[in-house]
Amino acid sequence: MSQLTPQVRRTRITLADGRDLFYFDDTPEYVSGQKSRRSDDPRPLADRYAPVPDGQGNLHEMTGPTMRMDVLTGEWIPHAAHRMNRTFLPPADANPLAPAKPGAAYSDGEIPDTDYDVVVFENRFPSLMRVPGVEDVDTTIDGEDLWHQRPAAGRCEVICFSPDATKSLREVSVTRMRTIVEAWANRTEELSALPGIEQVFCFENRGEEIGVTLHHPHGQIYAYPYVTPRTAQMLRQAGAHRQETGRNLLADVLAAELRSGRRIVFETEHWVAYVPFAARWPMEIHLAPRRDVPDLPALTADERDDLALAYLRMLEIVDRFFPTQEDGSLTKTPYIAAWHQAPVGQGREDGRLHLQLFSILRAPGKLKYLAGSESGMGAWISDTTPERIADRLREVAAQVGGESVAHTNGVAGGAGTQEEAGA
Question: Of 18, 147, 178, 386, which alpha carbon lies 20 to 30 A from 27's?
Fold first, then answer.
């Protein structure tokens, strides 16, 4: 057992097809080792790297997803045709993210145990995957020097926030949110150390409007073998700013927002939530640490504790942004919550950790469509102003007050992770 931190136990097991799964437990009897999670996976799954048959039944070596360089933009575009067969809006009794049913025959779910706190596992239908024996080299296609292709040799993981498919992340306890923060940090640290990985991205998609195909509360963690276009663009701006001023651009942005105060939504001891000066989306909020931090693993225990509280408050505010439903219940605002972390290598000094949460909903039942200007030219046109967004968010934040996380069990102060090897 290796000691990472004291309040969360991580147990690693191997699924039937060879993928990794990690249990992150904060329940006392599992933290203490009094109880252990199920470690066997009896599903009759073929090894994920086994040869695959073609249309004529002939076996071919598994090659995995590839990515091609768009010579017009300099962006890598992964191509993962096998994802066409991934699970799409399954019935409630066939949820692959739910825990196994006690006493029932094992179904094709991904979690072997009948319960869990937080679980992370390798995606069964990844868009990025390193295949053993496939060399990560740049090749040209059709003899054309313009057309470059490489294996999409990254990694895609799924993180399940709760065993309850009817819940959302907003409804978990602070203790559970703290465990999620620990899982994000742990996976970022380990994925960043893998060969060829240049950037790690933790994110959550919520709502069918966003494109979610599984409604169970979950997120994803991508380890890219390249720096993503959005990050590369920010690094170019940050590099120019550092050359001109000697300072970190994102740190200066936060300082400017604090000086203005006009778009600040709320503040905590370690975190600031604000609407960015040039917000693009109908509802957008950024959450940034006060201290210059490159990524989630670099956060202190106190910063992680405070983040658990701040994150849940932010989600409560987001779900109150639009009017409540006729029965008085909160609207589940569709959103994407995206953690921007510094890249692993080049440009790391110009990166700074922050969360960007945004919604494509501009009014109940009305979406912000990316039409000709946005989709064709990448030229954004906003339907509102950042100040109007901030005013509404602050109005809701005042209503929520300190009660936004009153449904919690308290913060696991100084939380962290113990390691338990699976059988």
Answer: 18
